[in-house]
Write a structure and sequence with these properties.
Helix content is about 0%, strand content about 45%. It has 1 helix and 26 strands. The chain has one helix at about 105, and strands spanning about 5, 25, 30, 40, 65-70, 75-85, 90-100, 115-120, 155, 160-165, 170-175, 190-195, 195-205, 210-215, 220-225, 235, 240-260, 265-280, 295-305, 305-310, 320-325, 335-340, 350-355, 360-365, 370, 375.
């Protein structure tokens, strides 16, 4: 449900504060305690876009109880209407489970002081999470020399951290949380990296939102994702730019780990990925989609990742893959280089064409892949390049 700032459409409002100077609103009249005043008024049915208010400025609506303050982690039962704000101005959003009481979660905040998160009186609280929230046990898998360190600190970001053009953001092995962490589209990034920026020595925690956005040339060096959100990182730069990922790991991404929406190149090396749908994928149906895109994968270990790389051969994409090790828990056959027919958003759906080896688009041989038992790879490939319908 989208966030909104609201005052409810009502035909009867109860007094919000019991006091001789309280403005009491009732259906059909307004009166002020201690004054001989009474006047008729017409209730306007207001659209749910106005600011809630009461007689005295408060950091929670009437009938609500504060559960945590801005920058903290709250937990609520399923489908709870949560208010975020201060001074009788609130943004409401229906939430479930743990969430960050932050501008990022509610897509806005009330300026002038610390905002609070509150819920209707009588809401049965869920067991409060620790601040920071519990995190998964440290994963066992890693690329040699690139094991995820123990976080030195956990930082709850109130909004996306912007890394300016040419800047180096050194997280000092801190864990960073923002919001969300599921597969919902349109989440904000934890880090927004401008052209020429670098993010290094960073652990992205379970409130991973949409990971990292690279808007041009960028480097992600010693970055680990404990629990991948929408995507671990997205390459958004124009032609001629490179997103470089070196030495890190990503765990538990239900869909893609690295999304390639821009042009230019994506380079991944010395990396470990587990329990994800794909290591890297060229966008299948972006607005203004096209190519060519180049993906380079070198020195990577995967575990239970059904597809290593997905590219759009009709847009001229090329994947070059070397020294990949499959360490799967079962015998499902991993697709090393899957080719698709990409489309421009609104012009149909992307479609899988098949697996390729040693073609102009898929520059990888079966000998480039090491299989650790019981791992298997899909060797049922097109004879040459897969036909594009």
């Amino acid at each position: 449900m989208a966030s909104h700032i609201q005052i409810a459409n009502v035909r009867r409002l109860i007094p919000v504060v019991e006091d001789r100077n309280t403005l009491v609103i009732q259906e059909g009249n307004i009166r002020k305690e201690g004054e001989a005043m009474k006047s008729k008024f017409a209730l306007l049915l207001l659209p749910v876009t106005l600011i809630a208010s009461s007689a005295f400025a408060a950091n929670r609506p009437s009938g609500y109880t504060t559960i945590c303050s801005e920058g903290k982690i709250c937990a609520v039962p399923a489908s709870t209407n949560v208010a975020f704000g201060r001074a009788d101005q609130f943004i409401f959003k229906v939430l479930s489970g743990s969430f960050a009481c932050s501008q990022a979660t509610f897509a806005g905040r009330i300026d002038g002081g610390v905002n609070e998160c509150s819920v209707p009186n009588g809401t049965v609280p869920t067991p409060p999470p620790n601040n920071p929230p519990p995190t998964p046990s440290p994963p066992a898998g890693f690329y040699p020399g690139c094991q995820m360190p123990t976080p030195t600190e956990t930082v709850q970001l109130p909004a996306t951290q912007v890394v300016g053009a040419g800047q180096v953001f050194d997280g000092g092995n801190r864990r960073y949380n923002l919001s969300g962490g599921g597969q919902g589209e349109g989440q904000p990034p934890v880090f927004d990296v401008q052209n020429g920026g670098t993010v290094k020595n960073v652990i992205i925690g379970p409130l991973a939102a949409d990971g990292i956005h690279c808007l041009g040339n960028c480097t992600l060096d010693h970055v680990w994702w404990e629990d991948t959100g929408e995507d671990a990182a997205t390459a958004l730069g124009p032609a001629g730019t490179v997103m470089t990922v070196n030495c890190g790991a990503a765990y538990n991404g239900a869909d893609k780990t690295f999304q390639f929406n821009g042009r230019g190149e994506l380079r991944i090396s010395n990396f470990y990925v587990a329990n994800s749908g794909k290591l890297a994928r060229s966008c299948g149906d972006c607005t203004g989609n096209g190519g060519p895109r180049r993906i380079f994968v070198t020195n990577v270990i995967t575990r239970d990742v059904p597809t290593i790389v997905g590219i759009n051969s009709n847009f001229g994409d090329v994947a070059t893959i070397n020294n990949v090790t499959l360490n799967n828990s079962g015998t499902s056959k991993t697709k090393i280089c899957q080719v698709y027919k990409g489309v421009v958003k609104g012009n149909g759906s992307t479609s899988a064409l098949g697996v390729e080896f040693d073609t102009p688009n898929c520059q990888v041989s079966q000998s480039d892949v090491t299989l650790l038992p019981p791992s298997q790879m899909n060797t049922t490939a097109c004879a040459g390049s897969c036909p594009i319908p």
